[in-house]
Every structure is written in C-alpha cells, then in structure tokens.
C-alpha cells in the first residue's frame, strides 16, 4: 500500500506550476496542432520512456510488446480516418470507435473483450460578471478512455478539459504509474469528478445570489417577474450539469465494486472514493434543481400578487371616480325640475357631498388595504 499512499495527492491539482525547464515532456504536442494526436508515450517501470522523435502508435506498441510497460496516447477530436489506423493497431471494438469519433455520448462504461471503454462528461464553469437570461453558466465536453492491459487511449472532445496537467502530475509519481493503465483511468475519473465539485460550488453561489434577490424586500422590477428568465436559464444550465453527473453513477459503482481483470485491485479501492464524491455532487445537483423550482414558483407567485395588487388599486380608484361621474351625469341632464337646481347653495352642496362620499370610500378602501 505504500506505493499508492499518496494517490489522492498525485491526481489532485497541485499548487506548484508545471516545470518548464525540464525535458521530460518534450514529446507532448500542442493540442492546437493539425494532428489529432496530442501525445503518445510508452511508460515502463513507472517512468516515461524518452525518445528523440514522437512515437507512432505502431512503434509505441512494438516497444511495449518487446520490453513491457504500457502506452498512453491522447487524441483531440480525431476524424474517422485518423482513428481507423489507431483502432486497428490496438484492436478496439468498432462500436466503441464509432462512439469515440461521433462524440455526444452519455457517460457510460462498456466492456469489450480485452478492453474497457469509459465515457466521461467534463463540465467547466463559465465566469460571468452578471447572471442574465442568456448567460452560459456551464460548458461541457467529453473524455473517452480506452483501457487495455498495455494501453490507455484518451479521446477528448471540446475546447476545455485538457489532460496535459494530469499527465504531468502522474509522471511525477512513478510508484502510481507502476499500477498500469488502471491507475490512469482512476486519475482521469478523479480529475473529472473534482471538476464537478468545483462547478457545483460555483453554481451554488449563483443560486444563492438569485435566491437573495427574489426574496429580498424592496427590490425594483422583480415582482413583475423579470427574474424568471434568469432563473429559467440557470435551471437549464443545472440540467446540463445533471446530464453529466447522473449517468456516471453506475459506471463508478461498477469500477469500485465489481472485480475486473483490467483494473488493479489496489486501484479499485480508490474508485470508491471517486464514487462517493460523485454521489455527493449528484445530491447537490438534485437539490439545485428542486431549489430552482421553488425559487421560480415563488417568483411567479410574487408577480401574480403584484398584478392582483395593481388590479385592486385600479378597481379602488375606479370606484372613487364613479361617484363624481354619476353626480355629474345626473346634473348634466336637461330637465327643469331637478333638486336644488335654482337654490343659491345647490352647486357647492353637491360638490361637498361628492367630495365627502369620495373621501369616505377612499378611507374605507385604504383601511382594508386596497390602496
């Protein structure tokens, strides 16, 4: 157990920036290059085998079959033609190859003869100064992992979720890499779930902000339902987050509980920790969804209450205005014999009575909370 004592520390992000003056990673290619292959290396006895030139898949496998170790190849959005030769060299199943090229797969774990095919959804929080009805809160990508006895192939889709830093950290821990491809698979799973935890904390802050604004007194404009668009957009982003987290529960459960020939027993124990963290994030996401439902309903209820208050005020003033309207309508008729028509004080008396009635109605409505 001593060789994997610091497993968690090895796969967690480090506060120390990667070394730039070392030649250990000279064969790591720029992901922005025209080639889909980001990196291809052979690892033997827990260390990377350095070469003068980048290795081809065929040359890498030839070295492994001759001298032992395993190959770790990383690709970024390969085309079908680019991946065809690699699939043939490593004996990958056609169905898994099709999923890896097409992408847009839900998280899953599939077993094909002598290999495992795992799909992870990566999620990244999009920073924004202010949450609006059009704000993008989370951005998702995909990492597919083919794991065999002597190889690991990672296929990444999306602009985020680079595994370069993760590879560097693993290369700094030879004892961990001695465990083979399953150690890389665990590191990737842990890296992805750690990203979920960070996104969940950031989304929690956005939800707290919206909740405070909805229920804070004296906010301007929001009783009319102007927050509904922001809440609905945040709910859509949480749904995207949920689609990444929920389907991964079963694969992590299988990796942590069911014995597998391609997963080292010592590494399998640490999948339980990943599964536990994933379950916690899943509970958070479910809570986010329910909380946003409540906030949205409360916001719509506040808008309905505000509209009812407006209607009550309009009705109250209409009742007050109806009194002088009625009096003026009666005295506007052309009749000779009308009450107090020729009396000197008839006009001021009618005005006084009208004002008194309007004042009484206004006071009664105000006492009852209509005004």
Describe the structure.
The chain has about 375 residues and is an alpha+beta fold. Helices cover about 55% and strands about 15% of the residues. It contains eleven helices and seven strands. It has helices at about 5-10, 55-65, 80-90, 95-100, 165-170, 175, 180-215, 230-245, 250-255, 265-330, 345-365; strands at about 35-45, 45-50, 70-75, 110, 115-125, 140-150, 150-155. Strands 2-1-3-7-6-5-4 form a seven-stranded mixed sheet, sandwiched between helices. The longest helix has about 70 residues, at about 265-330. It is rod-shaped. The model is unreliable at about 1-35 and about 220-225 (pLDDT under 50).
| Unreliable stretches covering 5 or more consecutive residues | 1-33, 220-225
Distance, first to last CA: 75 Å
Largest sheet: 7 strands, mixed
Taken in chain order, the helices and strands follow as HEEHEHHEEEEHHHHHHH
Q: How large is the radius of gyration?
A: 34 Å
Report the count of strand segments.
Answer: 7
- Strand ordering within the main sheet: 2-1-3-7-6-5-4
**Mean pLDDT over the residues:** 80
Helix content: 40-55%
Total of DSSP H or I helical runs spanning 4+ residues: 11
User: Structural class of the helix and strand makeup?
Assistant: alpha+beta
């Amino acid at each position: 157990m001593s060789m994997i004592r610091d497993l968690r520390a090895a796969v967690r992000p480090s506060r120390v920036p990667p070394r730039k003056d070392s030649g250990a990673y000279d064969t790591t290619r720029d992901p922005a290059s025209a080639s889909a292959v980001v990196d291809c290396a052979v690892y033997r006895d827990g260390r990377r085998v350095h070469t003068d030139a980048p290795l081809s898949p065929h040359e890498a496998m030839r070295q492994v079959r001759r001298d032992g170790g395993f190959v770790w190849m990383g690709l970024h959005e390969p085309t079908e033609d680019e991946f065809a030769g690699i699939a043939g060299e490593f004996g990958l199943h056609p169905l898994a190859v099709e999923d890896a090229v097409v992408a847009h797969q839900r998280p899953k774990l599939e077993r094909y003869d002598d290999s495992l095919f795992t799909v992870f959804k990566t999620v990244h929080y999009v920073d924004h100064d202010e949450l609006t009805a059009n704000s993008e809160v989370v951005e998702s990508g995909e990492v597919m992992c083919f794991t065999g006895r002597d190889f690991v192939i990672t296929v990444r889709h999306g602009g985020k979720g680079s595994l370069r830093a993760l590879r560097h950290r693993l290369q700094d821990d030879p004892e961990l890499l001695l465990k083979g491809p399953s150690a890389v698979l665990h590191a990737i799973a842990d890296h992805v779930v750690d990203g979920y935890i960070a996104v969940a904390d950031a989304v929690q802050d956005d939800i707290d902000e919206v909740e405070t604004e909805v229920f804070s007194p004296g906010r301007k404009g929001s009783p009319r339902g102007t927050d509904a668009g922001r809440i609905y957009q945040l709910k859509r982003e949480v749904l995207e987050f949920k689609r990444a987290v929920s389907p991964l529960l079963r694969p992590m459960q299988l990796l942590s509980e069911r014995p597998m020939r391609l997963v080292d027993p010592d590494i399998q124990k640490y999948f339980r920790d990943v599964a536990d963290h994933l379950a916690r994030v899943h509970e958070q996401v479910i809570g986010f969804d329910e909380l946003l439902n409540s906030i949205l309903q409360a916001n719509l209820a506040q808008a309905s209450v505000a509209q009812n208050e407006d209607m009550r005020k309009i009705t109250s003033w209409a009742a007050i205005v109806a009194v002088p309207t009625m009096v003026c309508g009666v005295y506007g008729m052309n009749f000779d014999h009308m009450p107090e028509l020729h009396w000197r004080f008839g006009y001021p008396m009618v005005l006084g009575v009208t004002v008194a009635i309007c004042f009484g109605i206004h006071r009664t409505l105000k006492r009852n909370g209509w005004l």
